[in-house]
Each structure stands twice: as C-alpha cells, then as structure tokens.
What we know:
Blueprint lengths: L3 E5 L5 H5 L1 H28 L3 H21 L2 E5 L12 H13 L13 E6 L4 E8 L5 H4 L5 H10 L13 E9 L3
Antiparallel strand pairs: 1-3, 2-5, 3-4, 4-5
Amino acid sequence: MPALLVVLVTASSVAAEEDERLFMSRALVGEFAGELMGELKWAIESGGPAAAIGVCRDLAPGIASRLSRQSGAAISRVSARYRNPLNVPEPWQISALEILAAEMPGAPVADPLALPEHFEADEQGGARYLKAIAVAPLCLTCHGEVLAAPVAAELSADYPHDRATGYRLGELRGAFSVVWPAP
C-alpha cells in the first residue's frame, strides 16, 4: 500500500498549501457547489420541495461528471449516511469524513469556505481532497428530522434504504470529493 501524506488543511500546513491540486480542488468544489445550489433553489421555487430530489438524483451526478472530464480528477459527493447504496464511501473517505466531523464548528456557518477540508497526497503523485458540506436550511427540506409528506413519499419510492435523513442545521452532511490520479 502506498504511503500517504495526510494533512488536515490549516494555516500551518505548508506542504498542502503549496500543492496546486489543493487550489484546483477548491475551485472545482466551489463550481460544483454553486451550480448545485442554484439548481436546487430553482427546483424548489418552480416545483416545490419534492422537485429538489431530482436535482440531487439526476443533475448532481451530471455536474460532477462534466467537471471530472474537464479537470481530469474524479469529482463526487460522499457521505457516511448515504442515500443511494451505490454511493457507499471508500474507506479513506470514511476516515476523512470522521476527521471533518470532529472539526465542524458545531453551529451553522455563514461562509462555506470556513468549513473544514481534508487533503492528502501519495508517493505515486496522486492526491485526494474532501470539503465538508454542512446542513444548511435548504438541506433540511430533504435531509431534516421532519419531512413534508410529498418529500417523504418521493424519497421512500426512490430510496427505500435511505440513511440520509434526521440531520440538524449545521451538522456534517457529507463532503465534496476530488481525487487526482497519479501522473
């Protein structure tokens, strides 16, 4: 198994801060998050809360795929409490999600850039990055403790083994994942 350089990115993590892939990962996550949030807001405004389910189910994977093709990195969203059983996180992602959960501020944050991130590089030249996704008010529509009947019905039909509900504002929902292959 290759040795890894694991860094919880902080102001003192000079090696990680000098890795260009960290900056590129941040930019990709910002683009993914911005586009996804815009689509979610539009879906809820135009079709109601249940319409947001289709955005995460159908549009988010397409956004991730497009960004992956453009960048050369594998981009996705991960969570220990996943909705789709095809999206079970890899062991390294589970470990990183635990680190991110421990670093969460414990209250909602106004600036998503202030949320924790995780970066690691291996000896072969690959790198992996996770950026925390905190539960925001909009997320509670489909991931909260109490769901509207149409949302609960849609989720039950699409995801009979759903593990992604019961969240509270400010909790770690999951993370954006960016994996850079070795050259």
